[in-house]
Specification:
Its cofactor is FMNH2. It is an enzyme of class 4 (lyase). It is a single chain. With 390 residues, this protein is an alpha+beta fold. It has a single domain, classed as Chorismate synthase AroC (Chorismate synthase, AroC fold, 4-Layer Sandwich), CATH 3.60.150.10. Helix content is 32%, strand content 20%. The strands form six sheets. A five-stranded antiparallel sheet has the order 8-7-9-15-10. A four-stranded antiparallel sheet has the order 1-2-6-3, with helices on one face. A hairpin with a 2-residue loop joins strand 7 and strand 8. The longest helix has 23 residues. The protein is globular, with a radius of gyration of 22 Å. Bound molecules: ligand EPS. Ligand EPS binds next to loops.
Length: 390
């Protein structure tokens, strides 16, 4: 499967075209809207989220509630567009109009794509860069991921993202009874954190950063249950599923690192405390006695839960000015902004969930027959039985 996204943060709409979904899969706009609303929530978001109420329109590839096998097109309107029709207009400017178009950006913000993106595409008005590098684009990545999540859920695979750290405050109590319990409890937390006490401290840290005109980052974790063993590849570097998940997480705006299972902690432990012992029972088939490797060996799923973390840097758009250089005058200035989120880690956990779901659905549709959803479902069931008795 593949998808492209198009659209600017303050342009008319965001669009994604998804290709490679099996025909005959049930999908409804309400499935996707639920995830779009989850992404918009989260303590620490700025005023833009009060303007937008993201809703998807399915404009291709679906008929009477089922995929057709043709590309699926999804559209989400930017409500803020009405305030930007002149500045972000599609039509060429009339003569003399150029100076009347305000909000030209000649002052790159440290930590953003502004300066490098301007250099790459020759944009002296770096609005042309920031409009696209904005995390607004994650709206349609979540829409695409939501479709992938639907495919997975119909195959008995559950994916959930949550927050384990914000601004140096770590969640300590990460126990949950079932994935449903994890979903319910994180859904009720304004910071999507399982540990209620840590969640309160995280909110205080966000308030503190906001009051200081600063921003804070954190760590999100995605957990997947129900993936069968042997999906991915040890044969081809570009089909190693853990590597593809790592790339997908790194592709989320402001993400700077990825860990599976014990992650970087593995550097500090001997092999006997890292690798997971293999066991078998008639009922369960093969399983690991522990899951320190986070569900992957040799670029393939082990059948154990997938546990992957990603670190998000603090959002670089700061009220607290950092020094930069105006590209027109080459003079130093203190960068400042009008509007920003002080922390978007809770939202980013929904984005991480979505991109992981996408990679899993892609790997499954690549490995198993996938023109028809019913055949995919059957192939997967056979594979589950086969790996159990292997
Ligand atoms: C973003 C800046 C803010 C965020 C935006 C991402 O938008 P604006 O520039 O309009 O104030 O609110 O996030 C979203 C719009 C969203 O939907 O998540 C940025 O620069 O990345």
């Amino acid at each position: 499967m593949r998808y492209l996204t198009s659209g600017e943060s303050h342009g008319p709409q965001l669009t994604t075209i998804i290709e490679g979904l099996p025909a005959g899969m049930a999908i409804a706009a309400s499935d996707i809207n639920n995830d779009l609303a989850r992404r918009q929530k989260g303590y620490g978001r700025g005023r833009r989220m009060q303007i937008e109420t993201d809703r998807v329109q399915i404009v291709g590839g679906v008929r009477h509630g089922y995929t057709l096998g043709s590309p699926v097109s999804l559209v989400v309107e930017n409500k803020d567009w009405t305030h930007w029709t002149k500045i972000m207009g599609i039509e060429p400017l009339e003569e003399g109009e150029e100076d009347s178009v305000k909000r030209k950006v000649s002052r790159p913000r440290p930590g953003h794509a502004d300066l490098n993106g301007g250099m790459k595409y020759g944009h002296r008005d770096m609005r042309n860069v920031l409009e696209r590098s904005s995390a607004r684009e994650t709206t349609v990545r979540v829409a695409a991921g939501s479709v992938a999540k639907k495919l997975l859920s119909l195959l008995g695979i559950k994916v959930v993202g949550h927050v384990v750290e914000i601004g140096g405050i770590k969640a300590e109590n990460l126990k949950y009874e079932s994935i449903e319990d994890l979903v319910k409890r994180t859904e009720n937390s304004p910071v999507r954190c399982l540990d209620e006490q840590a969640g309160v401290k995280m909110m205080e840290a966000i308030d503190d950063a906001k009051n200081k005109g600063d921003s804070i980052g954190g760590v999100v974790e995605v957990i997947v249950e129900g993936m069968p063993a042997g999906v991915g590849s040890y044969v081809h570097y570009d089909r190693k599923l853990d590597a593809n998940i790592a790339r997908a997480i790194m592709s989320i705006n402001a993400f700077k690192g990825v860990e599976f299972g014990l992650g970087f902690e593995m550097a500090r432990k001997p092999g006997s405390e890292v690798h997971d012992e293999i066991a078998w029972t008639k009922e369960e088939g093969y399983y690991r006695r522990t899951n320190r490797l986070g569900g992957f060996e040799g670029g393939m799923t082990t059948g154990m839960p997938i546990v992957v973390k990603g670190v998000m840097k603090p959002i670089p758009t700061l009220y607290k000015p950092l020094k930069s250089v105006d590209i027109e005058t080459k003079e130093e200035f203190q960068a400042s902004i009008e509007r920003s989120d002080s922390c978007a880690v809770p939202s980013a956990s929904v984005v991480a969930e979505s991109v992981v779901a996408w990679e899993l659905a892609s790997a499954l549709t690549e490995q198993f027959s996938s023109d028809r959803f019913d055949i995919l479902e059957r192939s997967l069931e056979e594979h589950r039985q086969y790996t159990k008795e292997f």
